[in-house]
Amino acid sequence: MTQSEPELEQQLIDRLTGLGYEPVTLRNAEDFKANLKTQLEKHNHIKLSDTEFKSILNHLDKGNVFDRAKRLRDKMELRRDDGTTFYLEFLNTEHWCQNQYQVTNQVTQQGKYKNRYDVTLLINGLPLVQIELKRRGLELKEAFNQINRYQRHSYGADNGLFQYVQIFVISNGVNTRYYANNRKQEFKQTFYWADQENNLITQLEDFADRFLEKCHVSKMICKYIVLHESDKVLMVLRPYQYYAVEAIIERVKDTDKNGYIWHTTGSGKTLTSFKAAQILTQLPKVHKVLFVVDRADLDYQTSKEFNYFSPDCVDTTDNTRQLVTQMAGDSSLIVTTIQKLNRAIKSQRHETAMEGLKDKRIVFIFDECHRSQFGETHKNIVRFFTQAQMFGFTGTPIFADNAASNQHGKRTTRDLFQECLHKYVITNAIADENVLKFSVDYWGKLKRKDGTLITEPKLDREFFENPDRISLIVDWIIANHNRKTHGRKFSAMLCVSNVDTLITYYEIFKNKQKQGLHDLRVITIFTPSDNEEDEDANGLIGEPDFNISTDTSSRSHSRDKLNEFIADYNQMYQTQHSAKDSQAFYAYYKDISKRMKDRDRENFQDVERADILLVVNMFLTGFDVKKLNTLYVDKNLKYHGLIQAYSRTNRILGELKSQGNIVCFRNLKENTDQAVALFSDPNANEQIFIEPYEYYIEEFNKGVQELRAIATIPNDVNKLISEDDQVKFVKAFRNLIRLQNVSKSFTEFSFSDLNLDEQTFEDYKSKYLDIYDRTRSKPDDEKESLVEEVDFELELIQRDEINVAYILKLVANLQRDRQTDVTSEEYQSQKASILEIIGKEAQLRSKRDLLEKFIEERLPTLEPEEKVETVFQDFWTQERVEAIQQLCIEENLKVEVVNQMIADYKFSGKEPLRETVLSACNEKPKLLERKKIFARVVSKLLDIINKFDDDLGELGEEE
Length: 959
Fold this sequence. Notes:
Blueprint: H1 5-18, E1 22-23, H2 29-44, H3 50-60, H4 65-73, E2 75-79, E3 85-89, E4 101-110, E5 114-123, E6 126-133, H5 140-153, E7 167-171, E8 176-180, E9 193-194, E10 200-201, H6 204-210, H7 214-223, E11 225-228, E12 233-236, H8 239-254, E13 259-263, H9 269-280, E14 288-293, H10 300-309, H11 320-328, E15 333-337, H12 338-346, H13 351-355, E16 362-366, H14 369-372, H15 376-384, E17 389-394, H16 413-417, E18 420-424, H17 426-431, E19 438-442, H18 461-464, H19 467-484, E20 491-496, H20 499-514, E21 522-524, H21 556-573, H22 582-598, E22 612-615, E23 628-634, H23 639-646, E24 660-664, H24 669-679, H25 685-688, H26 693-710, H27 723-743, H28 758-776, H29 804-818, H30 824-840, H31 848-858, H32 868-891, H33 895-908, H34 914-919, H35 930-948
């Protein structure tokens, strides 16, 4: 017999009790507060009066999750009844095992709905770990979705104490994951715990023993949660990050030896190194910690984050004196560039200021150490700092196989940093779903009749730089770019062999755009050079060079072209960049970097989008952009250069981004296999690359059989009465959506290969969306729905090109036909077709009633001289005004304040604050009603915005 959820819950509580947690029964908010008072008194060795405790509750009930995480870690200056001051501690973060631990279950909170939480771990009376369980066999994502509902519906109730949760745990007994309290993250950003060898710990009992053990879970909360100041969210370290930081700390505490961390690209090395630097500054024997990056990597976000932790620790100027001042001052953490550090220790001008540091215990942490540590700089640092301890982070270490010779000889990462302290290779990351697999296409004319690839002339510049060949590649990209990037929801990079080739590519793209053959936004950056040699002949990626020489005699052609291309960029984005000197050029580089990275942000405006970033070497290492999913390659790559470049595409982001797309216009198959073998293990190919096209077609067709077993035809979905049957249908069709999402990224995709024609697929999709609509629109007092727990993943079926503007064009055509000799039957058929499209598109369903009203009621009354677009805009504006007026009547709100809240949301993407919403009320709400009114008004506001402002497209005049 399958274990039930209550049995699983009790088994966990028994396990935790055995680990030293005190079991406690807390059924409601009053029990919860009484227990909090008792635990705080016990932890602080103090007796609190009711007045004092009320003051504490008021202190705790402020701000969002991020603000509360800070408050949790601070002490409260409590004004006592007798006038004295007591510093009340909520959590002992320094000695994390010295706290009070309890476990409770089935706590009930009444918010928008009444919710009951499975298992809660209390530390000093505050709920810091929340565990949501599902019975064995159920999808783990259902537990994740349930916690999201609790966050929306009830965590803010009763002084918002559940907003102090730091870590969530979800489990169905067999699979167990954890994640930080961050509403912005997706299910893919939840993690398994693992041992030091990266073996996953998935069973709930083992997870409880290893992760939920009192001291360990406290350590994770106190030391290994990062308060990400830039985004105002909590982030918790993954197991391999934890083990890496622990290894470095142990190394510094116990030895003076160096070491390096091998964590694959895309696994979050910067966060790991940041946390290591943060903790090392607290060790008394460490004088300073220097976090050293390449200048190209010291972007705005990195600088901002470090400066929050240690004010003014980052100097983004080229002024070496500023670094020397920091080194000689009290800063315990300094973030600098490898270039500036080298100047500081070599220059005689700074010799006196630096002299006092020579024999101090200074820890150096080098990010991306495979790039910057093989020249003179490393020797200079070791020579100057006699007590230096050096740690490197890399996703692609330099081994004997991929070491390049320079004037210092042929050296490996081990030669420079000694022992590898922790490994997390690409196969580990893909197995853990922390990075995506790659889909690699090899395209080109060099194929035999049997399909095998002919060996290319590897160093034949004339062949590869032939404009006719490049023009054909550009044609291929234009034809397939939308398919690869899901209708430009993602950006791409195109890397080429040298500056001359880059110029040819850019100009061909530009000319084809002038001819009206595409409207892709192509941007580029490169360092002007005379191009005497093919820079990529060795297949490795060179360092970005930001030095714009004033002597341009040998570089005049590429320098002129760079200025011309920057002028195109300025015109496209209304900027004023130039390459007049190194500083201006670096500002242009940073603007491109920010533009690409900002696509990851919620409030990004599509007008700022770049479709293709064209480069030689820049941005091919250490550049993390989640909204980048495709790399076009016309460049010789190998070993760490190849893995680094490919890995620009493999950051996890939702269901739509199912793999990193690599399109090679050279035969890099052998190089790819060698690189994979070097950085994982020789048999790793099947783990790193997605399956071939035929595999997904076969899986899709199997899924069709499963779907038809539930509902033979689309109309049979109407007969699925029970929620269990509806959930089975939703999951079966969702599986087809996922498989189709991957299949469509292959250039050979055709619906004719599937055992389900496109029309029937669309009909099933309509039924799928009907179930979604019913679930989301149920009354507030209705019991929670099993279907609501299922993630419908609507992003996989939303088509950007099907918006209101698109429908309006169809309507305009329909109106033109009505005024000609088209028959009534044909007119009705066309109208029915338009209404059917509206019903099938996820993003139009909120607008369906209005669009139908316009077509059925307003369109037939149109005069011949009236334009559909103009009449529609008047209709839409009037309906919008009436919807806002209706909201104001229902909730007794001021119209002008509501209009301003909508305008502010459209500008910033941020929901209005509670004070703003309450200020819109004509009558001040009672204290107990405010929370409900706030939630209700915001929900209705967002519905209006979704209905009237989202997914409109470009509404213009008829041609």
